[in-house]
Amino acid sequence: MSGPALHLAVEIDGDGAHPAAWRRAAHSPGQLLTPRRVARVAAIAENAGFTLLTLDDGVLPPGAAPDPVGRIGAVERAAFVAASTSTIGIAPVVPVTYAEPFHVSSQLAALDHISAGRAGWVVTEEERPEAARAWGRPLVADTGARARESRDGVEVARALWDSWEDDAVIRSVATGRYLDRERLHYIDFTGETYAVKGPAIVPRPPQGQLVVLGRPDRIPAAQLDVALVEGRDLASVATAAAAAGTPRVLAEVEVALDTPGATAAERVADLERHTAWSDRGRLRHIGTADQLVSVLVELSRHVDGVRLHPLVLDEDLAVLSRLVLPALSGRRLVARPLPGTSLRSALGLERPANRFTAAAVATQEDAR
What is the pTM of this model? Predict the structure, then answer.
């Protein structure tokens, strides 16, 4: 546990966690993908005091007709949000089942520069066979193979982020040198399905290493900064959190809250007439804001934070902002991110040393 603070993250992709959430949205379906919509939701989350927002993604459409199926890439949306916010962390979902880890690492490093050190990465998998066809790649069919691709992808990205030492960029006008090539390094990674030599094409991120979030049953705990754990009840979440073995643990929680116009149960029932809310094995709260506060207080005894998946963003995010976060703040359970701090700092994580710099220092000390 990181201390008294409960770090709250919120998923803001689409109109909400329910596939028919768009039917209760406060905007027309045509406005979903507009910059104004993305910026407005991010601003609400930041002003409420969330530590982190995440943006789901995948190469395939997120739904099927008659529901809206459009989506802009998570990294592109994250870069836009980074430029319009100042304190909240931003973590796009980027699967590396088929994507090139070299390019993913470059995109994410650039995002960390754009956000001045507020970027993270949610590692997931492309599970549907259609994704392989969309990428033009051989199908990665079984669970073990997909986990291998995620594991290798994280290893490559982390190595590439270190391939530039922190002081590699020298910008010497007198000598006409932009960087010191002796401080750039090849990573020489060879996996089962590809090899990467490096170095990166983007300088080391401000955080050194972006905050990497993922499921510990898919990615080794040693590669993660934050484990995302699931469970249908508090006991299951507590058990998963205890077994995670990562520096920080966030529980996945789906929420539907009472609003001034309807109870949570009524809102869920209204959407269920159109499409079922799939059970993903996560803790699900359907009820009042006060009841959710009690659930989060109990969870704070077992996890470092929670990633909330609101039923309908336009309805539930307002209740979270007005009632839930202030109540937790009054109990001194949440801490608002401070201006100028990195996501790693907000989560109480140290900035890691560069592996190549550390190795050089160790070699010099051994030679003495």
Answer: 0.94
